[in-house]
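User: quick one
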Amino acid sequence: MSEKWKNKVALLVFTVPTLLFFTIIVFIPILQTFQKSFFDWDGLSTPIFIGFDNYLRLFDDPDFWVSLKNGLIFAFVLVVYQIGLGTILAIVLSSKAVRGRKWFKTTFFIPVVLSGVMVSQLWIAIYNPEGGLLNSIFAALGMDYQQAWLSGEHTSIWAIAFTNAWQNMGILLVLIYTAIKSIPEHLYEAALIDGSSFWHTHRKITIPLLSETYKFGLIIAITGGLNAFQNMFVMTNGGPGNISYTFTFMMYKAAFRSNEYGYGSAAAAILVIECLLFTILINKFVAREKISY
Amino acid sequence: MIKRLTNGTLKYGSLLLYVLVSLYPLVWLLFYSFKDNEEIFSTNVFGIPKEWRVENYVNAFQSFDLIMYFKNSFIVSIGTVALTVLLGLMFSYASARMKWGLSNAARIYMTAGMFIPMQIILIPLLMIVRSMHLQNSYLAVIVPYAAFQLSFACIIFYAFFRSLPKEIEESAAIDGANVYRTFFSIMVPLVVPAIASVSIFVFLFAWNEFLVALVMISDNALKTLPLGLLYFQTQFSSDWGAMGAVMVLSTVPTILVYLLFSEQVENALTVSSAVKG
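Assistant: Done. Structure below.
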């Protein structure tokens, strides 16, 4: 066999298994989800083509609008908490005067590595209306905020989203912190001479230079919020009623509880389109120019 | 001077405040795993247990098959890591070190998985698994986990392979090593740090994953820890102390793994975020 042939064979040996595996398990199923969303299908018998009926049914379903709203609230909470608070903590942490940075960083990251089910269960106890940690803190402070966080119509989705934001804030913190550390020192020296204040300096220098990181952070926070499922599944089972539903929850319920696989696929397809839309918007409006120092 | 002092206090103050927000719920969990319901919710909500009720842990062990769930999660996680690392290394080596026309396109195709939520493919995936009779085998979750983690692994491995000097393969070729030997005995050992990062990240992912496991695994004997926790919650919902004990026990391994390898986890995270969304 010639050298050229050997190299060609080697290339196929190295790439084909991975590409094939990824295509069969990830790529083709995505297409199938879209395809099946146009069918009436119980998962066993032959699917019947029904055009856009599943989508029309979705738009008529009160669960759909609640899910849409909840996904957006969830995304909003993640963005504010993880990117907002993450930025503040990362800036404070990166200042030279602070010692024990590694320890702080590790501590803030610990909730990230826990299982989402366990964290959800922990927060069920924290939100417990009868003497849970949160209500007890309000009582101890003499504040009249005690309530049934998870079953309240106006608090439920916020409380659930907060749990997720609390757990995963460390991811954004580490990313933003690392990005700040890569900003060259000399950019700050000029500001120091000008006598500009701590927060002013960071607002004018640090934050604009983080736009690439923010782009990535916004994508994971927003798509993470839109995709929310396990927190509500464990904490409220979507209820009471449908007040903590999301698209993934609708898909799960339709497909795996009522065997309406076509309808479930339509909910999943809407979710993909929604995530794609946000990713395109973020790419369009955040960090359009390449950063160079 | 005074300004610097207050500045310092403010900085440490805000950081320590968040340490409290971040850790106290976990410490609170540790405390309540030794309490009874009355202490948890009324007589002693915040503090150290008045009486350390080890029986919560005994109850937990008796009514919760912790060893089985640990074993299942361990097999699933190791299987996922092995498959992801092997396929990811081979593909990334080809895309970073070999010259071929579609190299760039194939690499971008593989990274797309980073931005696709797993639940999208859940329905077709269940059909694949059913038709291949993989239901109620560990492969029913290992296969989708590995497929989705491949994107992340390829990004990290590609970055590492690219950073190695070109001369390595040249001298290996002069020594007469073929491409497979060069790959396994020269290139792979050079990217061990990347393998460590990817392994830990993927391990933690597989250990904690919930939704795919929920849909794919129905046989109780194959359930992973998150499913076990859910089962325990529905069965023993009124015994908060024992529930807390189960939660503590299930959490200790992940925290230990993280504390031992926190550097690798953070590195993997930062490298993967450099990919264009």
